[in-house]
Predict the structure.
Amino acid sequence: MHFFSSLTLFQVFAFILGAVIGSFLNVVIYRLPIGLGLNEPKRSFCPHCKAQIPWSQNIPIFSWLLLRGKCAQCRGPISFRYFGVELLTGGLFWVIWNQCVDAGTLNFVPPLWTLVAFLVAATFIDFDHFIIPDELTLGGTGVGLVFSFMIPELMGQESHWLGLLWSAVGAGSGYLLLWGVVEAGKLAFGKKKLTFNPPAPFRWTRQGEDAEFTVDAEKMLWSDIFSREKDQLVMETEEVCVDDQPIEEAATLRFYFDRLILPGRELVLDTLTTLSGKVRSIVVPREAMGFGDVKFIACIGAFLGWKAVLFTIGSASAIGAVAGVGLILAGRRDASGRIPFGPYLALGALLWIVAGPALIDWYTGFFRPQM
């Protein structure tokens, strides 16, 4: 009874509101990356049978438990993640409410709740699609600037304009810092070379405005390979066919996203249907980090300021390194390379919100002279 008596009406409200927001975030996570409107259709629907879900079966947390994680219409499985996102968001709203009450900063609750919503949505979209949409990063940056103007105390200021200024500094410093990391990573790790002995089959097949590229049974989208206009994919081939017509016994192919350069001529990829042949070696362009992460840290900086940016990047890098080493030791080296950096940034930002300054004081305490 003591536990329940310590809960206040506002704490319960914070958790319930967070769970409701989490239910909406599930819609954002599913629809935004695939281009579905958030209001069309207006109701949530089963991903299997597409039946719209009535409100009585769409109560955050409880509906998933009562239906045992299955659609009421087709009995298809509904991912545990829907339940997890609602529970996680409710829990984070509850934690932030308690923290702001203890610190006497209740005016921080709306912006921090808003940031948490952006962090949760970005994390799970990045896990699924390895992207963080501009609606979350650029939109979130704009919202953070507005909140910092309205509540300058977020930036440790009293003036509204100084709050806006330091929010912009936080967003800009985060963007520039990670942009520098991306550019340095491109110089150091911007190419990946693979050699095949014996030569492996390859095939490029147009799919609307994109294409599917297969090398030795590994498939990838053409648009996923090229992040920049100047990116170049180079193949040393044994034989090449264009639209199933052989053109070279052996050639060096230089691909840009929209064109192919052969010895003595250039082909526009929009005019082709297929390319195929055998490859001896391939050099693939790659990025050390996506530009979505660069814009994401700008969003975090707009809400939390430049100190939080430094803490977030540092803690995200440390957590990512530990997680990568752990996966390698567990024999899952491939999995370590498939975890995007966005979730680590989100976790670093949450650590700052919950205990960032205290952690910094604890860490720097090791270097202070003992009196």
Residues 63 and 205 are 44 Å apart (CA to CA). The longest strand covers residues 191-207. Strands lie at 191-207, 210-215, 218-221, 233-242, 245-248, 251-255, 259-262, 265-268, 274-285.
